Each structure stands twice: as C-alpha cells, then as structure tokens.
Amino acid sequence: MAMASLARRKAYLLTRNASTAPLRFSFSLSRGFASSGSDENDVVIIGGGPGGYVAAIKAAQLGLKTTCIEKRGALGGTCLNVGCIPSKALLHSSHMYHEAKHVFANHGVKVSSVEVDLPAMLAQKDTAVKNLTRGIEGLFKKNKVNYVKGYGKFLSPSEVSVETEDGENTVVKGKHIIVATGSDVKSLPGITIDEKKIVSSTGALSLSEIPKKLIVIGAGYIGLEMGSVWGRLGSEVTVVEFASDIVPSMDGEIRKQFQRSLEKQKMKFMLKTKVVGVDSSGDGVKLIVEPAEGGEQSTLEADVVLVSAGRSPFTSGLDLDKIGVETDKIGRILVNERFSTNVSGVYAIGDVIPGPMLAHKAEEDGVACVEFIAGKHGHVDYDKVPGVVYTYPEVASVGKTEEQLKKDGVSYRVGKFPFMANSRAKAIDTAEGLVKILADKETDKILGVHIMSPNAGELIHEAVLAINYDASSEDIARVCHAHPTMSEAIKEAAMATYDKPIHM
Q1: Cα-Cα-Cα-Cα dihedral of 34, 39, 43, 47, to 10°?
Q2: Whole-angstrom Cα distance, residue 36 to residue 150?
Q3: Is 307 helix (H, G, I), strand (E, B) or coil?
Q4: Residue 146 in 3-state DSSP?
Q5: What is the DSSP letter of 311?
Q6: For residues 224 and 208, what is the distance between their CA atoms, to the nearest angstrom?
Q7: Cα separation of 222 and 203, whole Å?
Q8: In what order do the strands lie in the sheet with 198-199?
Q9: Half-sphere exposure of 289 toward its Cβ, with a 13 Å CA cutoff?
C-alpha cells in the first residue's frame, strides 16, 4: 500500500432516513449568559458534559442560536467533575509520590523523608476541576451560548421545562433538542453505595483517609485506575472480577502483560469471582464472595469497597416516554446515523446512545450531530475511537484486537517491538511494555494498534491518524521518527509488521 493512501480521506456521507432508521455505526439552570426566556432556539442541549458542551459550542460557532441546560451547577459533566479529570489528577499525584519513594534514589536523587499530605493532594485535584469548569463557562460566553442551570424534562418535542437552581421554572423552546445527559454508576444487587465505606468512583476520588485495605469490584478501566491511586499511596488493593479476565475488551496478549505489571505493583486479583453479599454494619466492610460458577463461599474484609461494575445511560426524569422517544432494553436512546431519534427534532449523543462510553466519543458525537443539523456532513466511526487505561504503565488501543480478527476470519500479520529495545525508554529507565500492530496480510492496511508503556495515551494518536487514513504499516515505517523518542517503538513495530525491525 503506497504512501498515497494517507492523502485519501474517507467520505462518510450518512444519508439514512433521519426519523426511522436505528443508529448503526460500524463496530467489526438559572444562570444565563443570555436570556433563557421563551424565544425559540435553533438548538437546545440537555446536559453540559463533554458531548453536550462541545455540541453547544459547535452549534453556536455554526451560527445557530443555542441554549445548554445542565443540572449539576457546573459544566463538564461526570468526566470533568467526578471522572476523567479528577482521577487523572490523583493518578499523577500518586505516581509522583511513588516515584519519590521508590525510584528517585536510582537516579541519584536522595530524599530523606517522603510523606503524603492527602488534603493537599485532594485540594490540587479540586482546583484543577474548578478552573476547567470555569474555563468552559468562559467558552460559553465567548461563543454566546445561553447557559441554564437546572433539571430539564420534555414538555413536547420542541419544549423543555427546566426547574432552575433557585426553585423557579422556565420553559426553553428549540427547533432541535439534543439529549446529552451522559451515564451514571451501575449499581449491583444487594449493595448500597453510601460514598463512605462503600463507594462509587465519585466517592473514591474524595476519601478522607488512605484505607489500609481496599476492595475493588470490577476490573475495568475505572476500577484499575482508582485501585492504582490508592495502592500507590499505601492501600492493600484486591480486585474482584466476575469475568475470567481484566479489561475484557483489551487485546489478550497485552492484557496478560498488563496484569503481570499490576501484580508486580502488589495489586491482587480474584477473577471468576462473584459478590453475593456485603455487610457494612461494623467498622469496616465484609464482602461475601464465591466462584462465578458456584462453590464454597469466603469472606473478604476491607476498610473501603469501591463498586466499579460499569455505567448505565442516565435518562431519569427526562420524560422521554411522554414524547414517545424509543429506547432499548438497557435504556439507551435509539438514534439513526444522523443522531436523530424516532421523534422528529429530537436527537441524542454520548453515553445515552449505543457505542463506547467515552468522553472523546461523546465530543465527536456532539460535533457530528450539530453539523447534520446545520446541513453539513458529520463524521464518526466507532471502530476508530481510541481507548486508554491511565495506570502506570498506560495501555492504549485503537482498532481491532487479535482475538477479534481471528473471530472475523481475517488474515493478518503481527508486528511487535518491546520498549526494552527502545533507547529513550532505556535511558530514562521506563522500558516496560511493547507496541503491537495488526495489519491485513494482503494489503498491509493497519487494522489495530495496541501500546503498553508510560504515556501510551499520547503515543497512540499516531496510530489513530494512520487508521483513519487507511495507512499501511509500511507507511508508518517509512516516516522518519525523531531519535531518541518512545515513538520510535511504533516505527519499529511497523517495520516488524511488513518486514523486519532494525533494533531487534
């Protein structure tokens, strides 16, 4: 496949009837910056998270009169307020502590005493969140987006009733209304989250002290990230997972290396294990577990239990049924390729519709949706959305896993390159992990890329760009990469895919 493939961008012209066809992407308040009165808007967005606020700004940039309704009282949604952003702040802070305590001496930096000041660490996280939420408010002002603080629900396909923060009620009218209300923590039967001893990811971001023992229910992205935070700070962390593997969506080979890395960090795993009961009546929490297939029960004890078993679409109180919006059996709103529901003029994006529950996916949905509303062509391909686990090392992926290609009967080649052979990684003593590239056996088109390394979440975007432009592994291999960089491992893995690497 020639380099010219990088010059050909696919045109995704989505033309299915907007009112009837279901969405099928390929997978293989009241503070107002303007009056919230009864004037009709071109676009009204319910929800100010990554999908909603991005859609609002884009709509305004396209010349559409826009109002965004947000119940939280702060923009940014779960991601910015109690998700992606605060967790990354704590991941970074806890990593700095761990490095100072365990790694600095190897680099000739001697520190006589290292202590955790948890209140200061949490304050830094809160400051970051506050500044970013204010930043979005600033962007709303700049782009003349009307911001209403309150809980919105449908009166009709063109009217939203908003119970505002100050107890008043107002009606916001719009020609096009977008539901962008995101998702909420998925509960487990028999387990009541009190955000003190039994916590969701929200409570895990604000524990008042470092638990001696932490049990994490669920070995997905969020559970492993929050387990890493408290494990670095001194908690004994045990992860209980019903499935046979951690992060089931991850490439199998990468997953095995990832789990070994976490185990070296003293994180314990109980896989194929079911939680059947919980007792929080004492000082701590007792968790009753048994094998997933049934068998002898045992009891685990912890100071804190984190419930991290996934998320569910949040549509409570919207009165979708009142206007006839269709949902599936798990509550996701059904939309077509233009993000239209079965009700004319009503749209949905982000976590409330099928697809990856990721902030950046919601942002792409938001932009594409308002582009369709404005008469342009939107573009989202869920097969090409990257995913990142922000542990240490990080794991980042885009495209297909090896298991998916085998299941689909696709002939492919594999190229791998370990960071142990990367000069930059060796120089800075962060040589754990590898790059793995999967390419079509006949055409050399890249089908999937998986990276485990520090900063894998930054490295992956070269692969995301390549996959979006249908590049081949040879295309990447023939691009000059600066030396010494971690990115050279991607070049070497690409060389290993279609030919042979140089440094291995």
Answers
A1: 60
A2: 11
A3: strand
A4: strand
A5: E
A6: 20
A7: 13
A8: 198-199, 304-307, 213-217, 236-240, 268-270
A9: 21
Q: Walk along the chain (504 residues) and give the pLDDT tens digit of each residue.
A: 444 343 333 333 333 333 333 333 333 333 343 344 458 999 999 999 999 999 999 999 999 999 999 999 999 999 999 999 999 999 999 999 999 999 999 999 999 899 999 999 999 999 999 999 999 999 999 999 999 999 999 999 999 999 998 899 999 999 999 999 999 999 899 999 999 999 999 999 999 999 999 999 999 999 999 999 999 999 999 999 999 999 999 999 999 999 999 999 999 999 999 999 999 998 999 999 999 999 999 999 999 999 999 999 999 999 999 999 999 999 999 999 999 999 999 999 999 999 999 999 999 999 999 999 999 999 999 999 999 999 999 999 999 999 999 999 999 999 999 999 999 999 999 999 999 999 999 999 999 999 999 999 999 999 999 999 999 999 999 999 999 999 999 999 999 999 999 999
Helix (H) or strand (E) holding 475: helix 473-477
H or E element, residue 215 = strand 213-217
CA atoms within 13 A on the CB side of 166: 6
Measure the CA–CA gap between 488 and 481, rounded to whole angstroms.
Answer: 6
Cα(61)–Cα(55) distance, rounded to whole angstroms? 10
* Contact in structure between 178 and 46 (CB atoms under 8 Å): yes
Cα–Cα distances (Å) from 229 to 118, 288, 354, 390, 451, in that order, read 12, 25, 30, 10, 21
pTM of the model: 0.91
3-class SS string, 93-128: HHHHHHHHHHCHHHHCCCCCCCCCCHHHHHHHHHHH
Identify the CA nearest to 372 among candidates 339, 350, 341: 339
Q: Are 490 and 421 in contact (CB under 8 A)?
A: no
Helix ranges (H only) for 46-171 are: 50-61, 77-82, 84-102, 118-143
Selecting among 377, 461, 483, 503, the annotated active-site residue is 483
E strands, 404-498, are: 412-418, 434-440, 446-453
Report in angstroms the alpha-carbon separations of 355 from 35, 85, 187, 461: 35, 21, 20, 20
User: Catalytic residue at 379?
Assistant: no
CA dist 199 and 276 (Å) reads 17
Length of the chain: 504
